[in-house]
Design brief:
Elements: H1 23-57, H2 62-92
């Protein structure tokens, strides 16, 4: 006695290009999209305000800016010249302990 049951053909192909999402996933995706759009809007407004503030507060004359730059450059050059002299002194000083293996 051979009993054959009704067998359905399994079809794993998608029916269309629409995502089959539950209501909760749709709410989550919409909220993430909304947060991203709000962050772009906030970043753009912040950028515009910072640009306006930077233009308004930049009232220094060119001489003051040049003096500041020259002082900074002088300080940096002094630092490196001090390091150079220290390195030269360390290299040219005799060793304090004689190596017995030589």
């Amino acid at each position: 006695m051979n009993i054959e049951f009704f067998k359905t053909k399994k079809d794993f192909n998608k029916k269309g290009y629409q995502l089959n999402l539950s209501v909760y996933w749709k709410i989550i995706l919409f909220s993430i999209f909304l947060i991203i759009m709000l962050s772009f809007f906030y970043g753009y407004n912040l950028f515009i305000e910072i640009n306006k503030d930077f233009v308004i507060t930049n009232t220094d004359t060119n001489d003051q800016v040049e003096n500041r730059r020259q002082k900074r450059i002088q300080n940096i050059l002094k630092y490196f010249s001090d390091r150079e002299t220290n390195s030269f002194n360390i290299i040219n000083s005799p060793p304090s302990i004689v190596d017995p293996s030589i």
